[in-house]
Structures are given as structure tokens and as C-alpha cells.
Amino acid sequence: PNMMLLACRALTHLMEAMPSSCAAIARSGAIGALCAKLLCIEFIDLAEQSLTALEKISHEHGSAVLREGGLMAVLSFLDFFSTSLQRCSLQIAANVCKHV
């Protein structure tokens, strides 16, 4: 679990430092892996970090998030997360809807 969390944090920090990397991350299949971590919550820290990473991706690649089942993933356990992460989930949903 620590390696997955560190990898997710690395992706998030990479997208913050170099926004152009979002396209490569979206094409690499990372969206599906992030969504899977949201649909099967084993570690809350990893799920929270996955939400943060998906939010960064959804700004530019909302349609890719939608294709990978991201809308269902971010809204499935909405009531399980804190208020700030609920806002993050809803922001992802809004970004996805903008790209439809």
C-alpha cells in the first residue's frame, strides 16, 4: 500500500509541476487504475490521493475520465469522504460533464 500511495502522490506532484504531463498520464492507463482504487477502497489514504490525481486529470481530459468509468468511481462512495473530498469529487464530476 505504501508503494501505491507514493506512486499516486508522485503522479499528482508531477501534474502540478508539469501540467503538460497530464496527457501522457491519461494515455498511459493511469485513469483506470485510479478509478479502481476508488471503487475498491482498501486504504483511505490511497483513495483520497486518487481523487486528488483524478481532479488534476479531469481538468483537461474529462472525456478520458468518463470513458474509464471515473464518474461512477468518484460518486460511488461520496458520503464516505470528508467534506473537502466530497467537493473534490463533485469538481471531477463537473469537469467530466464539461467535456461531454
Give a written overview of the molecule:
The chain is an all-alpha fold. Helices cover 80% and strands 0% of the residues.
The ordered string of helix (H) and strand (E) elements is: HHHHHH
How many separate helices?
A: 6
Distance between the termini: 34 Å
Overall geometry: globular
> Percent helix among the residues?
over 70%
Structural class per helix/strand content?
A: mainly alpha
Largest sheet: number of strands, sense, barrel closure: none
User: Per DSSP, what share of the residues sits in E-state strands of 2 or more residues?
Assistant: under 5%
The total beta strand count reads 0
Low-confidence stretches: none
What Rg, in angstroms, do the CA atoms define? 12 Å
- Mean pLDDT, as a whole number? 94
